[in-house]
Design a protein that fits this description.
- The protein has about 300 residues and is α/β, with parallel strands linked by helices.
- It has a single domain, classed as Rossmann fold, CATH 3.40.50.450.
- The chain contains ten helices and seven strands.
- It has a seven-stranded parallel beta sheet with strand order 4-3-2-1-5-6-7, sandwiched between helices.
- The longest helix has 23 residues.
- The N and C termini lie far apart (about 70 Å).
């Protein structure tokens, strides 16, 4: 019988299981201090957790984006302490998101590329869609960056609506767009994706790249598997997405998805048609209605409301 496979990240032989008592004590002390720092950052209010307007990227944010913890997070098991402190960091991200977004109200999430510039037809389409979503009474939520995200947030603000974002720490930083009433900055992609789904009653998918595809199929899978309600997914930019739409039809023809799953996606380039679909599939089925007296945030818990 050949040798057993080693866990990823371990060294050869039994050496990976041994360390001196002095080194172990020193390592334990370091991990305890690190854990206390994470807990402190989790529960202490940080002004950078939410903001209005643009913000420069600090050097600390850039260093955290290249944190080696990210590189080893998915590389296999680590020490119990390191795994525990990773859980604390994930919890910190979720708590930041919950605190900042608790009072955003029913949202519509707009996904799309950060690389599209103002003046591009898709930018203008997303801007018009953001305004239309706001006039329906929804809060527009995006990834908070430039491109399509900026366009949707901008449209919402210009229409007098509410606009929020969930940005992400990356080695190559994306600027936060200036059309946000609130923004939460997150460390983990999966936390960001969860928050972009958690508060939304519909999803609008504009032209984008790998990240947009990831977000589209994440939402589609959650609806298909009944992990979330049957919220509408609107794909805009038919000429851009035509091969993908054809491929989804092929999946249904080959029996890889149910034929009924095709009804989960609505494709159009018309803002009016998209709005009517959201009205029919989100507002009416879930009994959404406008409120005149929103709940008041509890400042002691670090909560903040949005402009009315």
């Amino acid at each position: 019988m050949g040798p057993a496979l080693a866990e990823k990240g371990s060294s050869n032989g039994d050496q990976c299981y041994f360390e001196s008592q002095r080194h172990a004590t020193r390592r334990y002390s370091f991990l305890v201090l690190r854990g206390l720092r994470i807990v402190n950052q989790t529960f202490v209010q940080n002004d950078n957790d939410s903001m209005t307007g643009t913000r420069e990227v600090s050097s600390s944010a850039q260093s955290s984006a290249s944190d080696p913890d990210d590189e080893i997070f998915l590389e296999g098991p680590r020490s119990r302490f390191e795994e525990f402190f990773t859980v604390l960091k994930v919890m910190r991200d979720f708590l930041r998101g919950f605190r900042v977004l608790h009072f955003v109200g029913p949202c519509v999430t707009v996904f799309g590329s950060a690389r599209i510039k103002a003046g591009d037809p898709y930018y203008e389409l997303a801007r018009k869609m953001g305004a239309a979503i706001a006039r329906l009474g929804f809060t527009v939520i995006t990834g908070g960056g430039p491109g399509i995200m900026e366009a949707a947030n901008r449209g919402a603000k210009e229409a007098g609506g509410r606009s929020v974002g969930c940005t992400i720490e990356l080695p190559s930083e994306q600027p936060t767009n200036e059309y946000l009433d609130r923004c939460v900055r997150l460390h983990y992609f999966f936390v960001r994706k969860t928050l972009l789904v958690k508060y939304s009653y519909a999803f609008v998918v504009m032209p984008g790249g790998a990240g947009t595809l990831d977000e589209l199929f994440e939402a589609l899978t959650l609806i298909q598997t009944a992990k979330i309600n049957n919220f509408p997914i609107v794909i805009m930019g038919i000429d851009y997405w035509k091969e993908l739409l054809h491929f989804i039809e092929t999946m249904a023809q080959r029996g890889m998805i149910a034929a009924s799953d095709l009804s989960l996606i609505y494709a159009t380039d018309s803002v009016d048609e998209a709005v009517a679909h959201i009205q029919k599939k989100a507002i009416e089925p879930f009994g959404l209605k406008r409120i005149t007296r929103p709940r008041r945030p509890v400042r002691l818990l670090g909560e903040r409301g949005l402009p009315h």
